Every structure is written in C-alpha cells, then in structure tokens.
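Continuing from the previous page of notes. For each protein in this section, the sequence appears first, followed by its structure tokens. Read the first protein now.
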Amino acid sequence: MDKLTALPPLSLYIHFPWCIQKCPYCDFNSHEIKKGIPEEEYINALLKDLENDLPLVWGRKITTIFMGGGTPSLFSPEAMDTLLSGIRARIPVSPNAEITIEANPGTVENEYISGFKEAGINRISFGVQSFNDDILKKLGRIHNAESARQAIKKAKSAGFDRINIDLMFALPGQSLAQAKFDLESAITLSPTHISYYQLTIEPNTAFYHNPPTVPNDDASWEIFQQGKSILKDAGFDQYEVSAYATNGDQCRHNTNYWLFGDYLGIGAGAHAKITDGAQQSITRYWKHKHPKEYLSSVKKTALAGQQKLTDKELLFEFLMNGLRLNNGFAVELFCNRTGLTDDALNKQLHSMVNEDLIEWNKSHNTIAATEKGKMFLNNILERCLPD
C-alpha cells in the first residue's frame, strides 16, 4: 500500500435475519420464524451495535442505508421509525440519503408500505423472482404473481417513486418464453430499477442437496441475451452485470460497494469494510451470525472477527467489484481507494489487455471488461486471486 489519500463515501448496511420460511436456493443468513420476532429487542440491539462501531467512523456521514435480509419488511413501520431516528441521533445522515428496504411481496400490507415511507424510507426493493406461479412454488416463495403486482402498485400509491424488482432467470423448468413473460410483466409495472440475475445453486442450500432441473448453459445464455435486449428496448440501461435502471436511477448503495466505498454493517452476520486513514489500512469486520448469539453478545460487542486486507487482497477485491460495472472504473479511483499504485494494475492486467479481456483506455485512464471479458468475468477474477 502506498497512500490512502481520502476517505471514500460511507454507507450503512442493516441485516434482518428472519423469514417466514427459508427458500431452497437461499444461502443468506436467514432463519425461519419459530416463536415470533423479538422486534423491540432487535431494534435496540441494532442501535447498540451501531454505537459500538462509531469509533471506527468518527466525523463521517452516512450517504446510503440498506435494510436487507432475511425479510426486513416483517418489522413494523414503528420499529423502522425508531431505528432510523436512533441512527440519526448517533451519526450524521445525509439529508438526501438513499434509504432502501427489501420487501417480500407476501409480507406487506397497505399500512406497512405507507408506514415505511413515512418513516423516511425512500426506496423499496421487491423480491419477486418470477411472475409464474408454478415456478414461484418451486422456489419456495410465499407470494404469487398477483400479490407481487398488488404490492408494487401499493408502493406506488404510497408515494414510492424509486422501486426495484428482483427477478431471477434460468429457473427450474423455465423456458425462453416464460423468462420473456417475467420481464415483460415487471416492465409493465413501471419500476425504476430491475435486478436480473441467474439462479445459482449454492452449497448449504436445499437445492444443493436436491438439485432441480434448470436450463443448461446454452439455454441460460440465450435467456440472458434475450433479457438484455428486452430491458434495453424498454429504456433500462445496464450499468452492472445484473443491474438495470431507467433515467439514471442506479442503486447508490450497491454502486458504493462496486466502487470500493466504505460501509458499516450492523445486525446478525452483517459485514463491514472501513478505511482508516491514520493507520493507512483497510479492514473488514463481521458480526456474530446467529440471532441468539448476536443478541446475547451485542451489549459488549457483536464483533465476531476482523481482517486487515493485504495489498493483494485489496487488488483482488477492487477488481472483483469494479469490473462488474459496465463502464469499469477510473485508475485514479483505484489508487485513491486502495492506496496502491497503477503498477499493481499493470502487473495484474497486462496479459488480459493483450487477450482482449480488459480494455485500458489510456486517454481517459479507465479500465473496463471488454464484451469478451464480460463473458469470462469469473475466469478473469480467478486469475486475480491472491496467492
């Protein structure tokens, strides 16, 4: 590391670890509700967790907040209001901060959606995944296509003008025509953002132990290419591998991740990445994963571990994020956010430039994956793995 010249923007991620039921493809830190949610106890724990982390970020301001899970929308609007008020009382939050909540269409009623808006949440992300009821059953979702449509319409009526729809493709038994129907159904609802990503079978999931029949690689690629074309024709610009936005309405929180910004993480299993200018270091932190362990430990510290990133890890993690963006990244930004020099990039990427996997625009001093490189992004990253 050479020199960290400035601190990057700071975001806050908040994890809510409970779901009504665990989806068979999900490898996130989520737990089925057994005896109800300890709502008040968990909100208090989140605020205590934040207090414990404040020394890491003295004098800094939160620019985005993202509530993920699990299912944050299981918590009441009153709980969210208490949480956001408590956050603002403890750390400065930008007046125009993007504040996102993930919502399961099967868990939100009119009063909840309106209450979330009144609490100060200004962006909502619906985990729809598909508008095909048979496929939704295979995915273990608790909603159907009509309830998804109604939830999105309720959000519009409540005043949400920033709405994301999560859709997956290459789903069990999915045809090209069914994938097209999913996207067209989403577009008809006029969201400002669509996340469109392929189902992957992850270890430690029910699908991993009992794999469903999904489209093969060629069929999945055809579905993906069809999806890109449909979204483009509908006015959605792809700015990241799986993210599409209208009128420049990109997700600011996720963009901060992809551009190697800093973020605090509170809640069970939450992760953080913090730059320390005084120590000239970048460190990852993570919290206790199981809700019971998290709640019992947070009075002292919810911290389960931390790791100071080496130069090789910094290089890899920056590329892992930055190369996902369609426009790539500026070399100057890489240097500012990692403290490394452009020599580190040159050593790592020189051969890939010659192979037409990476484009290094010398006039603008930017780096991006080529069209060929985007097809082989995993291979590129494997070649960048730290020893």
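Done with the first. The second protein uses the same format. Note its length before scrolling.
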Amino acid sequence: MMQDVVSRARAAFSTHFGKAPQWLASAPGRVNLIGEFTDFNDGFVLPMALERRTVIAAAPNGSTDKIVLRSEATGEMATLDLAQTLRPQAKGRWSNYPKGVVAGFLERGIRLQGFDAVIDSSVPIGAGLSSSAALETATASLLEALSGVTLEPVDKILLCQKAEHTFAGVPCGIMDQFISATGRAGQVLLLDCRSKEPSWLPWTDASVAVLVINTNVKHELSSSGYADRRRSCENAASVMGVPSLREATLEKLSQFAGSLDDMSVRCARHVIGEIERTAQAAECIRRSDWSEFGRLMGESHVSLRDDYQVSCFELDTAVEIAQSIGRNGGVFGCRMTGGGFGGCAVALIETAAQEAIIRQVSAAYRERTRIEATLFVSRPAQGASVVRL
C-alpha cells in the first residue's frame, strides 16, 4: 500500500513538473480505537496510525516565493505566494491544509524557498480517518527537510492543529495530528490530552486485528455538528465550574443537570463516560483482554449514538452487522469512529477470521443500505517521515 502511493506520487510529479522529485514526505491517517470527542475535553484517547498514508513528492523550483501544489485527489493546482500574507480560501478547499502549515512556519520566522509538489494519498478522504492531519503533518515534515529547521515534536503538532483551526475552520483536538506525527509501528497510543503525555502500548498479539469499515457516506451535519457539540461540552464544564470535562464526574453532572440544556447534559455524560472507558481499554490492551475491550467498544457506540448523537443509519447498520457476527464468528466488538454522521466504524476481530468477517459485513451492509462499503485491516504503523532521494 505504501509503495503504491509512493510510486504514484513520484510518477505524477515527473509528469506534471518534467523533473524527478528530490524529497518524499509522508504521514499516516489514523483510526481511533476508543475515546471519541474526549481530546478537546482534556481526556484520554486511544488511536493508532494506519498503514494508509499521504505522500508528498517535492523538489525546489528555483523561485524565492512560489510554492506550487498539485492534488492528485482533485486534479487541481494551487500556488502559494510567500511574498504575501497567506489567508484561507473558501472552507472545504484542500489547499487550506498545507497553506495553514506554511503560514505556521512563516510565523515562526522560518525562511522557506519555493518548491513544486504533488500530493497523493491512500487515506480515504472524509471518512473520519484523519486525511487532513496526514496532509498537515506530511507538509510540516517536508518543510522541516527543505528549511533545515526541525521543530520540537509538540510544537510541530500544535502548528498543524492551528492550521486546521484557522485555515480549515475545524476546531479539532490534538489527537489526529499527534498520532500522525509520532505514530509507532506495532504500538497504539494512550494520549493524555491534558498533559500531552503519550503512553505507548505494544500491540503484539498477532491473533487480533483492527478492521476499518468505511460506510462510504458522509452527511452534511458533520462540520456544524462537531462545533455545536464542542460548545455544549464547554458550556457544561463552565456551569459545573471545572476547567474541562476531564475534572467532572457523573455525580457532579447530576447535581448541575437542572442548570443545563439537554444537549449539554448528553454531551457531558458521553465525554465523562468515554474518558473512563478509554482508560479501561488501555488496561485491556496491557493484559490482552480482548473480550472486555470489545464490550467497551459497544458501550462507546451506544453513548455516541444516544447521548452525543453523532451516529447515523449507515454507521449503526455497520456496527450492528459486525456485532451480530459476535464472538463465535471472530468479532470482539465494534463502534463508530471519527467525527460521525457517516465515515467509518472500527472493529476488533480475530485475525484468522478476517476474510470471512469482511465478506459477511460487506454482503449484509450492501443488502441493507444498497451501498458498497470499503473494508480493510491495518496494523499500527509508523508516523510522519521524510526521505531525500
């Protein structure tokens, strides 16, 4: 998979710019095993970097101030003028992500020269697998190589997060950029989003695998729904008098429920419970208790569906199908993952049963939704990297 996208990016660069690239930067997408909407509430998350990556092939173009980018996903070109103040384009434009990262480097006084680049990716776009963070961290890694300035890891992560906030208009937490930048092969990340301290958990049991189920739908509520629920979480924390929902408890929430609107209560209840589930799931990994991990995944999905209200018919259908296969069929548990309103579900399965599970889920999902799902298995992968050719 990695070599395929590298080959495509190199060939496309030569085709469009008439020369060979000098640098290849890449960064992975991610799947969050559990811990949804907890990162901006200072909680815990448990993601892993995927084996699917975004690759940027690049070479200097002799210009002092022109960066020329081509997206293979859209077939579009974008030119950034370093002599002018960089500003975001209309929301939803792919070029806002690399532009925001370039702006972050310039704000730090890092001198950049012009270059040409082609962007290609095997990370599904709009599926809740952090294609945006992969693009941001791949761009940042490329700029480090081209400028000769290496940022501190957390500074690099925060720069990419700010690019998403200010140029893409998405008030995301820190998880996506953190795992894309620092992912480790064969390990999953328990990230304390309050202290930004990572704990790396070995994923050494070859008998279990992570299955990603892309529903191949994305409903329009996703961007506005994310911001609305974030405000509800912040409102609940404010009314309860705590810095974030990390410091709240279900008992405290019940005391203040009468002073909160229904959505704030529901969002807070999900986040408080999800933080605890994520800590418990990390312990399950440490002792290889996959049945309990699967149970926690099921609880997480119910909370996301009923309290946080970010699931949808297609996600619920995918999860129900996987869960119906059950432990006897090789499925420990399943839940939606990512921002919701479509996108992906993630399941923990027996490796030996993965082909049969993929066939069963694909067929049942197609029958019930008339949509073709995309399914793939991944092991925890390496984070962002760059090589000079």
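What the second structure shows: The chain has two domains: 2-202+384-388, 208-378. The chain has eleven helices and twelve strands. We return to this in next week's lecture.
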